Amino acid sequence: MQNFKWQRIVLKVGSALIAPEQNGCSSRYLLTIAQFIVRCRAQGIEVILVSSGSVAAGSHLFPEDKPRSVALKKAMAAAGQMEMMATWDRFFDFPSAQILLTHGDLRDRERYTSVRDTIFTLLDHGVLPVINENDTVTTDDLKVGDNDNLSAMVAAAADADALMIFSDVDGLYDKNPNLHTDAVLLPEISEIDESIYAMAGCATSAVGTGGMKTKIEAAEKATSHGITTFILNGFKEQTFNLLLEGKNPGTIFLPYEKPMQEAVHWRTHTASEQGEVIVEGDFSEPLDENAEQINPQGIIEVRGEFSVGDTILVRSDDGTKLAKARANYSSCLLNFIAENETSEFSDEAQDSIGPIISDEDIAVLEKS
């Protein structure tokens, strides 16, 4: 790759490319993608594949009755995952490995670290990691929900240089190209803001679960970690040839000049808050340097149930999101303090209980 100096890339392949007819896996588009992977590896670039499509691949094995129950979709995912892995594996003369994840695996710091270690070990031994969400066992509170965002989380976990999201669209347009003939493809995005999200529109694929919005979300997650991100058309062979020539065939999202540190990025974009604490006070000073501002005496309300060590969201009394951080105390104790703020216990607690969160384990959020 002439203009792209990548050592490790993550490819996200959508369901429409895996099973375009929803009648099992098809090699129609996958063969070209597989050849791209082979050529990248031949140039010394490590590749991680995030592959959607287990439900689409397995749907033909079950009745076509609709609406489909959750249990039926899980069964489709279980059967389709086997077919999908077998399809990918037959394209390669090197080993591949399956990693099935839920959001629960990623939002728990210890399990997240374990996932990182596994990916790095596979890459060190020349094995291609093939990653998908574990649709067969995941529940609403444990699922990421789409592989666009999952691929961004994986790219961050793997310290990738680039994330390539392949779908059935050429990239991001200034308006929906299916509805507007004058829609213009945007080749480069330097900053993701509300105007970029406004261009996202709706999903264009009848097969996958993600639309352009989830791709923008993924790009925001990845670029904030210093990862160059592409939205590309995986149906066109020219896409892969141009990438290998060092050219951009779709939309490129430029990475942050000052990326978030790994732990802060994980806390911000991967860990999900288990509860919220509403506090009062003047928060003019940066919280990452003055977390002691968030003390039990300023608690207005505690929402949800959480334990010591869980990630919580801290808001000011005007609704502003202040930070996501590791909780130093459980919701039970903080509720007790908040409900007894005028009692004698409150005076004793003021001397014996420290800040709600630690300035060593905090992700300060932009005011929103």
UniProtKB/TrEMBL annotation:
TM segment ranges: none
Keywords of the record: Amino-acid biosynthesis, ATP-binding, Cytoplasm, Kinase, Nucleotide-binding, Proline biosynthesis, Transferase
Major enzyme class: transferase
A GO MF term: glutamate 5-kinase activity
Entry EC no(s): 2.7.2.11
GO annotation (BP), single: L-proline biosynthetic process
Annotated compartments: Cytoplasm
GO cellular component entries: cytosol
Keyword Nuclease set for record: no
Protein family: Belongs to the glutamate 5-kinase family.
Reaction catalysed by this enzyme: L-glutamate + ATP = L-glutamyl 5-phosphate + ADP
Binding site for substrate: 52, 135, 147
Location of the PUA domain: 293-331
Superkingdom of source: Bacteria
Binding site for ATP: 12, 167-168, 209-215
Pathway(s) served: Amino-acid biosynthesis; L-proline biosynthesis; L-glutamate 5-semialdehyde from L-glutamate: step 1/2
Function: Catalyzes the transfer of a phosphate group to glutamate to form L-glutamate 5-phosphate.
Domain Aspartate/glutamate/uridylate kinase intervals: 7-233
Full protein name: Glutamate 5-kinase
